[in-house]
Amino acid sequence: MPALSTTKSHDVTFALLRIVPALIYMQHGAAKLFGVLGGFGAKPGGTVALFSLMGLAGVIEFFGGLLVSLGLFTRPAAFIMGGEMAVAYFMAHFPHSWFPILNHGELPVVLCFTFLFFAAHGGGSFSLDRTLGRVPAQPEPEMAEQM
Length: 147
Description:
Distance between the termini: 25 Å
Structural class: mainly alpha
Shape: globular
Strand content: under 5%
Helix content: 55-70%
Order of helices and strands: HHHHHHH
Radius of gyration: 18 Å
Number of strands: 0
Largest sheet: none
Number of helices: 7
């Protein structure tokens, strides 16, 4: 099997780094809004009130995760999602300890910075933003620039 080109492997791993966290994030929203995957709260299949802070979080998580996983409106959706994770961290985890390992806030911190990365860099080559022409294709780098 021939090796992938550097550009092709970059595009594939960039897409995977966008899609996998977005789908994980989306599951949290699905649990809050639809009561699937164990639901929300102590009661299996429980949901949150839509017009509440947790309801807003569920909407951002589910629909933002869907948009980012598809690579559609990636920059604004990822920016909002990163902000939501920062708020979640400081409201729910930070009061227990400064250190994420002690306050169980590792996932919100990693997701926050992952989504901020995509807010800055966009969805990449394998995104609907690129397919629909919302973002121009980037020119191939010159060989001299790669060295």
